Amino acid sequence: MKAAELSQRLRGAARGDTMLSLLDQVIVSGTRFATTVMVGRFGSESELGYYSLAFSVFVLLVGFQESLISIPYTVFVKRLSPDDQCKYGASSLGQAIGLNLIAMLVLLIACVLLQVTSGATGMIGLLWLLVALLPFLMLREFARRMAFAQLHVPTAMALDLAVSVLQLGGLAALALADQMTAGAAFLVSGIAAGLAGLIWLILVRSGFDWDRARFRSDWIRNVRFGKWVTGAQMTSVLQTYFAHWLLAAVIDERATGIYAACMTVVMLSNPFILGMSNVLSPKAAHAFAAGGAAAAASLVWRFTAVMLSILSVFAVLVGVFGNAIVVWIFDQQYGGHGIAILVLASGTIALGAGYSLASGLRAINRPAANFWAGIWGLAVTVVISSALVHRASILGTSLGLVGGFYVTAVYRLVAFRAAIAEMCRGEDPEGASASST
């Protein structure tokens, strides 16, 4: 099939999935947004600070699962026969269980060490709770990523809607009882994720075909590809949440809470960015497998153009009205940081483009480029934020974060263009089936 014909077919098929994916991401991001608002409004700035710090730990841990299991599964699953897809799915689930046990052990050891050496009792209590809730939270994330990889977007949406109803209902009860704390919010989130995840597992269990003989080979393939994705994911998480920990260490948890409130408003762009990425990642992988570099590039450029257009408008609107929105949603004590919100809003343009290009680089088997892009972006964020945090506080860390976003996006743009040009000339030394190892 010619690249142009394949591109036309993918374009038509993508429209429906894209709309459903965007709707699903509205549900997911809306639930997280509402959770953050409830903790900040019915708790306190410090409780919101604790919640955002604990959430950053969860994001870091789930990043390993996505990098080593979910993303490789997304890239490779459609290259297999239907029977092998069932076996690969079972193998991936087994790997996720093992990885989750390791994550729990590491977090447990960290809690013990912090208990002995630190006096931050509020944060330690949250981390102990996270140890207990981690299997349920990770199962939900695994389930939705598997559904997206198979292009079963309605399944992912049903799962996320169930979690949303349970979680927001529990949080509303906490707010009415005046019992809103960071720990209580995490407990409700874990219970909601666990119930929905277990129901999903029961319903789809017949789709798993356990074959222990291929477990090792699947793991090796995932790690060979996923080691670069892991590095890129970890640098992304560290870059995004560096300011939270820096503000808590240099100033206090209250400053972290206010910064988290500003970021919450800016991250209203998440439903769009992540929804588009959820569709683009598997679509680009399928396009590359069926039509080569030209088909994948056409899809990525189209998604990137849409991202840039819409996020530019979003950045202007949030830059103008962001401070008023923060005060309206959270309360007066969170206001007064309009310039920081303007800076953060401008960063969504680079963030969206970076996500799109990252999906493209993974699809064409160039995950190493994403890693090095993340390294340079993280370095810029750390240097600028550390230099400015004492003098400019929240504004300083905002400048550091956004500077890193733009460096990461530019690196990915250059790398993707170069890789596509090389492949189209027939000079790719790795071929369509190999990954950068």
Automatic annotation (TrEMBL):
Keyword Repeat: no
InterPro entries: Poly_Biosynth_Transport (IPR050833)
Stretches that traverse the bilayer: 48-76, 97-116, 122-139, 151-176, 182-204, 225-251, 257-280, 300-330, 336-357, 369-388, 394-415
Annotated Gene Ontology cellular component terms: plasma membrane
Top-level division of the source organism's lineage: Bacteria
Record keywords: Cell membrane, Membrane, Transmembrane, Transmembrane helix
Subcellular location: Cell membrane
Name of this chain's protein: MurJ-like flippase
Native source organism of the sequence: Stieleria maiorica
